[in-house]
Amino acid sequence: MILKTDFVLRRGIMVNRLLSAWKEDCPIGVLIGEKWFKLNKLQKAKEENKDFDFILKEIISDAKNSGYENYK
């Protein structure tokens, strides 16, 4: 959901409609995705040739550190 949120924000089409629906099912994913978009985190990872393993570890770390009570 983090990657999808960043993509939708970058694309700029149907942003409110999609994010509103996704927030109901996966609020933590949307929140982190919005944060990553603001920080341009995925674009920076691409420019630095980071592999998917790096991105996955960042996702897990951000989810654990989010304080979101439903993350396990």
Strand percentage, roughly?
Answer: under 5%
First-residue to last-residue Cα separation? 16 Å
Number of domains: 1
Task: Please state the oligomeric state of the protein chains shown.
Answer: single chain
How many strand units?
0
Q: What would you call the shape?
A: flat
Describe the biggest sheet? none
The arrangement of helices and strands along the chain is HHHHH
Backbone CA Rg:
12 Å
Low-confidence segments, given as residue ranges, are: none
Structural class: mainly alpha
Mean pLDDT score: 92
Q: State the share of residues found in helices, binned by percent.
A: over 70%
Count of separate DSSP helical elements: 5
Short description:
This protein is mostly helical and 72 residues long. The protein has 5 helices and no strands. The mean pLDDT is 92.
Describe this structure in words.
It is a single chain. The chain has one domain (2-64). It is an all-alpha fold and 72 residues long. 75% of the residues lie in helices and 0% in strands.
List the SSEs and their pairings.
Layout: H1 2-11, H2 15-25, H3 27-39, H4 41-47, H5 52-64
Helix pairs in contact: 1-3, 2-3
Which features would summarize this protein structure in a list?
72 residues, mainly alpha, 75% helix, flat
